[in-house]
From TrEMBL:
UniProt keywords, alphabetically: ATP-binding, Cytoplasm, Glyoxylate bypass, Hydrolase, Kinase, Nucleotide-binding, Protein phosphatase, Serine/threonine-protein kinase, Transferase, Tricarboxylic acid cycle
EC number: 2.7.11.5, 3.1.3.-
Protein name per the record: Isocitrate dehydrogenase kinase/phosphatase
Organism of origin: Tahibacter soli
Major localization class: cytoplasm
Domain Isocitrate dehydrogenase kinase/phosphatase (AceK) regulatory per the UniProt entry, residue ranges: 8-303
Protein role: Bifunctional enzyme which can phosphorylate or dephosphorylate isocitrate dehydrogenase (IDH) on a specific serine residue. This is a regulatory mechanism which enables bacteria to bypass the Krebs cycle via the glyoxylate shunt in response to the source of carbon. When bacteria are grown on glucose, IDH is fully active and unphosphorylated, but when grown on acetate or ethanol, the activity of IDH declines drastically concomitant with its phosphorylation.
Catalytic activity: L-seryl-[isocitrate dehydrogenase] + ATP = O-phospho-L-seryl-[isocitrate dehydrogenase] + ADP + H(+)
GO CC, any one term: cytoplasm
Family under the similarity heading: Belongs to the AceK family.
UniProt-annotated catalytic positions: D369
Start and end residues of each Isocitrate dehydrogenase kinase/phosphatase (AceK) kinase domain: 308-558
């Protein structure tokens, strides 16, 4: 029999190889930013997303060679798990190693639920609590001359491309920060800390840290862009709401080259103490660990109130997905129905392909991150009777009964949002106008990242706590470049027969307002700010730009966070 220690060592080496390859891809981000090679940066992001499953496949082949016919024997894996636990005990990122191990054993054993003998299960701990290793950072004491401090900051972050004007850039950052912290009183800044690692995503680089006053502390994120003039500061974020959006579940993953991840997560939690740990791991590109932490936190929550029941999520019944939730926990579970109501003509495989597209694509801050889970086990008694009956009647390809349990064979889990159509009925006229305007902005942001929602009905959008409109119904989502945007023919051009043909990819923007169900006031606000999305010419021009390879910038922060191009400094 193969020595368990030998197998455990092979597993440790396999994760180390994955981590090294992950970092190698991530390290390209600086070169992409310097060269403004946004297309290659997008390719790198997709390659890195796909890397985990590729490496798991390679590891499975190596284990098959090591264990042969015994690879599926539980008695083999129990001592391997014990040896593996000893091998990783002193590692800072041992939780990532545990997730790697669990991914492989679940692959071999098709585990329904969890098996503590051959998996690492610790629902009662917060894994980052034991991490005391400080993340690598630059620290700056501030004694009056804030521009000089930021000149030193820029000196500590050199790039292969030049700053447009480092001195002016430092002044603008200092001015922006002073304005943000005006309520802190005169000379508000006493110290600044920034992580040594630069965070890259899409067309920006970010310096991430915090700013200290005499008695206060705030996040500090400096966004850099690289345009024809060179690298310059574009925004300074100090409000937790803005930083939370930049690190949110509607954003693509950062390219941040971290030797270890757990200490970075601990540091980021000091900036965003209310941000779930699973979202921080995920936004750093560690999607599998994000799933592990979401699972851990959810089942720990269940243990505190085992009598709470799952119920249908609020909102209109989905034709493609059955959606349920636990009222006390802010996520929804989405199961694909066995059959779709008319007029839906898609198939299960096509729906799953749409979710994979979202997983790989730039989400532009307007698509909720959907995590795919398999073989979750719950007691049947946890489901409201009507919900359980509907699952068993309409989702037999996604769930089945095993004894007294219901096993969810396949589902997507997303953050729960308030459906936009319900939200608009509940709020006052001003809030409704703001939501309608942001709904239009969401459509534009998605379109500029080459995403067309397909179904623009309000029920397919949700509203976050910060009032942002987010799209979450993906079964008709497609690329803008796949659509055929058309103008409606005049009445005299419409033949009486069937000669006027509507193809499967035809889209008529003029028809959008007819089906939205907005109040007159909210509709007027939408048309005033974003009336161009109902004009076919806007879509055709955008489509032509995307096909020509022009990347349209969608900043992940509001205009109010931007720096002002002033050059005078009145500070002491």
């Amino acid at each position: 029999m193969t020595d368990p220690v030998h197998v455990a060592d092979a597993l440790v080496a396999g994760f180390a190889d994955y981590h090294a390859r992950f970092r190698a891809i991530t390290q390209r981000a600086q070169r992409r930013f310097e060269a403004r090679d946004w297309s290659a940066a997008g390719d790198d992001a997709v390659e890195r997303i796909e890397l985990y499953d590729r490496c798991i496949g390679e590891m499975a082949v190596r284990l098959d060679a090591l264990l042969g016919a015994r690879i599926g024997e539980r008695a083999v894996w129990v001592p391997v798990r014990e040896a593996y636990a000893r091998a990783i005990a002193r590692l800072l990122d041992q939780e990532l190693y545990k997730t790697w191990f669990n991914t492989l054993t679940r692959r071999f054993f098709k585990t329904r639920g969890v098996d503590p003998g051959i998996e690492f299960v610790a629902l009662d701990i917060e894994p980052t609590d034991r991490i005391t290793h400080p993340v690598a950072r630059h620290s700056y004491a501030v004694w009056g001359n804030l521009p000089r401090v930021f000149q030193a900051v820029l000196d500590d972050y050199p790039f292969g491309a030049a700053y447009a004007h480092a001195g002016l850039c430092a002044i603008r950052i200092a001015q922006a920060l002073s304005r943000r912290l005006d309520a802190w009183g005169p000379d508000p800044v006493r110290a600044i800390e920034l992580m040594q690692t630069v965070f890259y995503r899409e067309q920006r680089a970010y310096l991430v840290g915090r700013v200290f006053g005499v008695e206060r502390i705030a996040p500090l994120v400096i966004a850099l862009v690289n345009d024809a003039a060179g690298i310059r500061a574009d925004a300074v974020l100090t409000e937790r709401e803005h930083v939370a959006q930049a690190f949110g579940y509607t954003r693509s993953y950062y390219q941040a080259d971290l030797e270890t991840v757990g200490d970075a997560v601990v540091f980021l939690r000091t900036l965003l103490p209310n941000k779930p740990i699973d979202e921080l791991y995920t936004v750093l590109g560690r999607a599998k660990q994000g799933k592990t932490e979401r699972y851990r936190h959810f089942f720990r929550h269940l243990a505190r109130d085992p009598d709470e029941t799952f119920v249908h999520a609020e909102g209109e019944r989905g034709m493609v997905m059955l959606v349920f939730t636990l009222p006390s926990y802010p996520v929804v579970f989405k199961l694909i129905r066995d059959r779709f109501a008319f007029p839906k003509e898609t198939a299960r495989e096509e729906v799953m392909a749409k979710y994979r597209l979202v997983f790989h694509h730039d989400r532009a801050g307007r698509l909720v991150d959907a995590q795919e889970f398999r073989f979750l086990r719950f007691p049947q008694k946890m489901f409201a009777p009507a919900l359980l009956a509907e699952i068993l009647a309409e989702c037999r390809d996604s769930a089945y009964v095993d004894g007294t349990d219901l096993v969810i064979a396949h589902c997507y889990i997303e953050r729960r949002l308030r459906p936009l159509n319900l939200y608009l009925r509940e709020v006052d006229a001003d809030a409704a106008r703001r939501a309608a305007v942001d709904y239009g902005q969401a459509i534009k942001d998605l379109a500029r990242s080459n995403v067309f929602p397909g179904d623009l009905l309000l029920k397919n959008f949700g509203i976050t706590r910060n009032g942002r409109a987010i799209f979450y119904d993906y079964d008709e989502l497609c690329l803008v470049t796949e659509c055929r945007f058309r103008a409606l023919p005049d009445d005299e051009e419409r033949p009486g027969g069937d000669a006027w043909y509507v193809g499967p990819h035809d889209v008529f923007p003029e028809q959008f307002p007819r089906f939205l169900g907005l109040s007159d006031d909210a509709r007027a606000a939408l048309l005033e700010r974003h009336g161009d999305i109902f004009d076919v010419r806007w879509w055709l021009d955008l489509q032509a730009s995307i096909r020509a390879g022009r990347r349209i910038d969608v900043p992940p922060y509001p205009a109010s966070a931007g720096v002002v191009p002033e050059v005078l400094w009145s500070g002491v």
